[in-house]
Amino acid sequence: MSGDLAAALAKLNGISASAARKRIERRSDSIRALDLQFSRGAQFLYVAGQYGSPRFWRKLAEALVKTNGAYARAIWALSARGGVIPLTNFASAAGASSGLRQLSGEAVYGRLVSTGLLQELEIPGLGACIAFAKGETFIDELLPPLRARLIAETVLLQSVQEWAAKLGIGSFHSFKLRSDVPGSVPTVASFEWDLSAPSFLGPLATWSNTDKPKPGFVVVDVLLTDEVGADDVRPFIYKCVSLRQFRGVGRCLQFFVAHRYSKDALDMIRRAGIVPATPESLFGTDVARALMDLASTLIHAATHAVAPEKFTELFERLGKVEGAAGTLRGALFEFVVADVVRKTTPNVDITMNKIYREGGKDVAEVDVRAIVKDREIRFIECKGLLPGNLLSDKDVDDWLTKRIPLVRKYTLQNAEYHRYKLKFELWLTGKLSPEAEMKILMAQQTIGPQKYTIEVFYADELEKTVRETNDSSLLKVVSQHFLKHPLAFLDDAVNQLIKRQILKNPFGFDGIPEEMGSASGLLGQSLPALPSE
């Protein structure tokens, strides 16, 4: 800070405070001032070459704490998460309040963006994000671990929800989890959280004379980095301590969940009366290791093939959690598709989650891009839904009218690709509405093959392609988690019982009626479509 520097110069050189301030004003161009307001006209000074370094952010955070903690909490939150946060999660991570006389999350990042400290990015698949202003290369390097961490944290939050609901810690159907959908943010008082629920537990609820209890709350934030440090938990502690000072807000049970804590972080959390939980302390060693394996597998799968047995293992270890199977299915399907393409296409170069940019902004993403040298480029959109579920018409419209034209445009900017055949493919384990099928058919008939082709691969075609790989492990993964309706497993179980003659004939005639020879027959209806994940 300029005041600290003036005092140091005065002491070092034996000059007056005013002379030291004049010397700072006449500084060279290599010493710059950050365009951010501080109290009493003070400035944050730095050497140009230090801008954006870890020391730069640390010293800036220290300066901001003394003048405006909201900015410091934003920097701590970003630093803890590698430099990027989805906009929908920013207020929660940064401990921003929507209360009166408080700086909202929007005001905090808006000011930091305007000064050039942060940038707002539109990342396909993640939506709007806030990041340190370090350029596009920084984002490219960060995307695989960022996606992996967010997916693992989603599975963890679903696990915490199920655990807390079964114990009655929170009202069973009132849990809210963070998501990318505006308006569905877990909120208690003026703060946002990763998970929240009202609680009628005795120590949390407040009883009035009318015998109608006023609920307390359970709130949870999660951060699955390697180790959480003291600065990483400061925004959460700020939210928790501030919440207790609000009148009219019920008592609150507060959890922070991380893989591991530094000693300072652990001491700070405990002193603040917060539960410092870990996946291992909540769910045991197996689930904790599975969450770590999930993140590392997703990062590795972004650039390398992954053994199908690994996907099976993750489903078995994490899929028991209600909701987690759907999250895993959507997250892992594109990696399964990439593996199928690798094993069925000779001399192919695979790129996962290829992002196309215009003017520094992300405009389109391809789940799997497969290039066969001097022949063709396949751009594959992956939709791993429960069998029987419909892909939304909006997803189809966006693919046809936005992503395909944009990807083709930016691909052809590379002269080398002009002689390649361009194929846009939709791999789908669910179904399309008649309207969506008609739109795709019209696009296929309208677009000449000399420009590009459009194809849809349904579940039966996926199964056929997987069989061509002669990989029994891959076939098992695809069949079990992407092709079979969950009730089909009940069919298999009933059929096995019939074969073993455990299911006795209660009707007094030979054989069992055909319509009763399966779970769907016993239920008296065909397999229904289940809700999407």
Low-confidence stretches: 506-528
Order of strands in the sheet with most strands: 6-9-10-11-12
Structural category is alpha/beta
In the CATH scheme, the class of the largest domain would be: Alpha Beta
How would you sum up the global shape? globular
SS strand fraction: 15-25%
What is the rounded distance between the termini? 50 Å
CATH fold description of the largest domain: Trna Endonuclease, Chain: A, domain 1
Q: Over all CA atoms, what is the radius of gyration?
A: 28 Å
The biggest beta sheet reads: 5 strands, mixed
Q: Helix count, per DSSP?
A: 19
The number of strands is 17
Q: How much helix is in the residues?
A: 40-55%
Task: Return the average pLDDT rounded to an integer.
Answer: 84
CATH architecture annotation of the largest domain: 3-Layer(aba) Sandwich
Task: Describe the model.
The strands form five sheets. The protein has a five-stranded mixed sheet, with helices on both faces. It has a five-stranded mixed sheet with strand order 13-14-15-16-17. With 533 residues, the protein is of the alpha/beta class. Helix 1 (2-13) crosses helix 2 (17-25), helix 13 (324-344) runs antiparallel to helix 17 and helix 14 (393-411) runs parallel beside helix 15 (434-446). The protein folds into three domains: 2-135, no CATH class; 137-290, Trna Endonuclease, Chain: A, domain 1 (3-Layer(aba) Sandwich); 312-468, Trna Endonuclease, Chain: A, domain 1. The longest helix is centred in the first third of the chain and has 32 residues, at 136-167. The protein contains 19 helices and 17 strands. The chain is globular. The two termini are 50 Å apart.
